[in-house]
Amino acid sequence: MKFRLSMVGLPILIGALLFVASYGTTQAAMPLQATAAATSKAGSAATAEATMSATASAGETTRATAQATTAFTVSCGQLPNDAALKAALTKARQTQNGGFNLDMWATIVDRDGVVCAVTFTGSNRGDQWPGSRVISAQKANTANAFSLPKLALSTANLYSAVQPGGSLFGLQESNPVDPAVAYGGNAAQYGQANDPMVGKKIGGINVFGGGLALYNSSGQIVGGLGVSGDSSCADHNIAWKTRSNLKLDYVPGGVSSTKDDNIVYDISGGKSASGWGHPECSPDATSIGQALPKDFPISH
């Protein structure tokens, strides 16, 4: 009887043992499977994070490349030097300009407002108004600072706008001249290649004729030109001709009736019809100024 019971119970016992062994193996495998799943998930997360990081890095590189492509590359080295400026200014000064026929100062700044060249037409720095040296630099800074790739504003265009009640009233107080740059250094170097203003930012806002933005043959704004030493109307006429002589007059557009930055004479009863008008200085200066777009047309 015992033997038969044993024989009957043995398969049951073996089955039970096999079940226990199988259950143990399954339970042992579960942590391994969980570990593998966790490792897989961690790997996937790490891969995703790495992909996102790489994508972000690529995006930053693309943005940096785009910024580098659109960055300003114009410097003083790409603009006329003092000798070229002097030749262009002298040629313009020798024509009829409707003023007092005086010797002139001129300054060029680059797009960042750094002074690149300062010169005069007389035989020495005392042959033209000494105060006009800094005024010419102010005009160059102003024309550059308030002109854009698609819109040129001359200093003459700003006169009415900055008057009380004008659309730009107070502008003339916004960017003061740096006195250390304006009056520092050896006066014997004024108007020379090593003028103390060269390589520095002069600042300053001037709101009467004589300042024009400079545009190269690609239509890119590259800086500003300022001329001073005669009446403000004659200053504008001389500046316009000087810019034309330098071939930096590819003006994209402006507020004058000829869609450029020419001086506007439309003040009547103390008010400019357009808001961009400049006072008249003399009949000759007015007629010469109004004819500039025809006699010295901007480049295209």
Keywords:
single chain, 300 residues, alpha+beta, Beta-Lactamase, 2 domains, four-stranded antiparallel beta sheet, two-stranded antiparallel sheet, 6 strands, globular, disordered N terminus
| CATH superfamily placement of the largest domain | Haem-degrading domain
* Average of pLDDT: 84
DSSP helical segment count: 7
CATH class of the largest domain: Alpha Beta
CATH architecture of the largest domain: 2-Layer Sandwich
Strand order of the largest sheet: 2-1-4-3
Q: Supply Rg.
A: 38 Å
For the report, how would you describe the main beta sheet?
Answer: 4 strands, antiparallel
Order of helices and strands: HHEEHHEEHEEHH
What is CATH's topology name of the largest domain? Beta-Lactamase
Sheet/helix structural class: alpha+beta
Counting DSSP E segments of at least 2 residues, the number of strands comes to 6
Describe the structure in your own words.
It is a single chain. This protein has 7 helices and 6 strands. With 300 residues, it is an alpha+beta fold. It folds into 2 domains: 1-71; 76-295, Haem-degrading domain (Beta-Lactamase). It has a 4-stranded antiparallel beta sheet with strand order 2-1-4-3. Strand 5 (267-268) and strand 6 form a beta hairpin. Helix 5 (232-246) packs parallel to helix 6. The radius of gyration is 38 Å and the shape is globular. The model is unreliable at 1-48 and 64-69 (pLDDT under 50).
Nutshell version of this structure?
With 300 residues, the protein is of the alpha+beta class.
